[in-house]
Amino acid sequence: MTTVEKPLSAIVTENFNSASVLEKYGLDFCCKGNMSLKIACESRDLDPETIARELSEVTYEESSQRYFQWELPFLIDYIINNHHSYVREKIPTLFMHLNKISNVHGQRHPEFLEVERIFHKVAEDLSQHMVKEEKMLFPAIKMIAQARAGGEKLPGLPFGSLMGPISVMLSEHETAGEELEQIRDLLNDYTPPEDGCTTIRVTFKELEGFEKDLHKHVFLENSILFPKASRMEKE
């Protein structure tokens, strides 16, 4: 299979450093990771061959693949301590900055008002989503991992199987990814307008950073944590 035919998630799985190339072109390798590079490029009017050549030049480093070797409890703690903490830290700042640029510049740039509305929904949904992971799904995965390590019987779960909550998390990831893509499109790939003040430029950078972090966050769950946890439960 050529690179242009490979799913985006497979490209990043083979070499995690490839994520930076896909991010540069606004290609979502997490929520839309099942999409091939060719189809993903068509949706954004990009040349897949050009991006494939750039991907072929990305250095492979064993250290960048560390996520794939981690035990599931450690990976879960990493996700919570790095990505969940990041989301909770950035939301109040983005609320403040989006409110400011909407109030001051919303008349000339009505897209700022729409971005603020969408981000408030993303923030509310992600906040609830992370609580469900931390209170239900992640503890269940850790329980199964502990039972497996000790050669014990699989513990009974209140929701039956991991696949139930995992399917909900996958759907919520996709929704968040689509909403952040709407924000990216409204803001012209986070390109500030010519009359953009410092606060606008800072806010655009913050939103871009928020989206990039979510891509890595969701990739770790969709492509590593959830598949490993499902296989572990079946075993």
The count of domains is 2
Q: In percent, how much strand structure appears in the residues?
A: under 5%
Low-confidence stretches: none
SSE ordering: HHHHHHHHH
Write down the Rg: 19 Å
The count of β-strands is: 0
The biggest sheet, with number of strands, parallel, antiparallel or mixed sense and barrel status, is:
none
Describe this structure in words.
- Helices cover 71% and strands 0% of the residues.
- It starts with 7 loop residues before the first helix and ends with a helix.
- By secondary structure, the protein is an all-alpha fold.
- It has 9 helices and no strands.
- The model has no long low-confidence stretch (mean pLDDT 93).
- The protein has helices at residues 8-14, 19-24, 37-43, 48-56, 66-69, 72-105, 111-149, 163-186, 198-234.
What's a quick, concise take on this entry?
With 235 residues, this protein is mainly α. It has nine helices and no strands.
What's the layout of helices and strands?
Elements: H1 8-14, H2 19-24, H3 37-43, H4 48-56, H5 66-69, H6 72-105, H7 111-149, H8 163-186, H9 198-234
Helix pairs in contact: 6-7, 6-9, 7-8, 8-9
Which key phrases capture this entry?
single chain, 235 residues, mainly alpha, SP0561-like
